[in-house]
Amino acid sequence: MYGMVNKAIEDLVTIKFGEDKWQAIKKRAGVNIESFVTNEAYDDSITYGLVGAASEVLGLAPTQILFAFGEFWVLHTAKLGYGDLLSSAGRDLPEFLDYLPSFHVRVALIFPHLKPPRFETSDRGTNHLTMHYFSHRPGLSEFVKGLFSGIGKMFETPLKVTQTKMKDAGADHDEFLLEWGAAAAA
Ligand code: HEM
Fold first, then answer.
1. What is the reported pTM?
2. SS3 sequence, the chain?
3. Second label for 26, Cα 20 to 30 Å away, from 94, 114, 125, 184?
4. Is residue 139 over pLDDT 90?
């Protein structure tokens, strides 16, 4: 994945747990890269290794790390680095979710070697939709849940996320029921 992903993990760890923990995580993961270059592509094994090592060093489940990383990605990384891209993707939560399937097409203009996720929506109602998530990569559904949680917070709109199909449990892709506003409180 592009260096900006590994850099974002570094930011999350140093802001929330401190520089010493980050150095310990890198050491445990066997990563001896001093600093990641945002727009350089790195092997996915580096990112997975950092998440695994963070789980061991911080004593948190990998799912907790991935969820926290998803929220941080939206509320910190994307907001600070790509605010215009983010705000042009929708004026409110439902508009943003409707647009999500096209979002990484624009991201790929900045990162040409992107291996992006694919999102599709279906069963759109006034306060709910089904989001389908397809990926070349395994084990990221908790990251996606964290991303949705971050998006709900970004728009200050209650959002309930229920995973209805799981690729890691044998389904052909991950599927989430997203309910917002009054439907999220029900
Ligand atoms: C301005 C905001 C964003 C930028 C710049 C961005 C950029 C990226 C980059 C660089 C990657 C790594 C892929 C690679 O290097 O091949 C990635 C992966 C990913 N992004 Fe985004 N992204 C943004 C927002 C979002 C949002 C809002 C979502 C969903 C709610 C999302 C979902 C994902 C997922 C799930 C992956 C993991 C890759 C996979 O599933 O294979 N991203 N994105």
1. 0.96
2. CEHHHHHHHHHHHHHHHCHHHHHHHHHHHCCCCCCCCCCCECCHHHHHHHHHHHHHHHCCCHHHHHHHHHHHHHHHHHHHHCHHHHHCCCCCHHHHHHHHHHHHHHHHHHCCCCCCCEEEEECCCCCEEEEEEECCCCCCHHHHHHHHHHHHHHCCCCEEEEEEECHHHCCCCEEEEEEECHHHHC
3. 114
4. yes
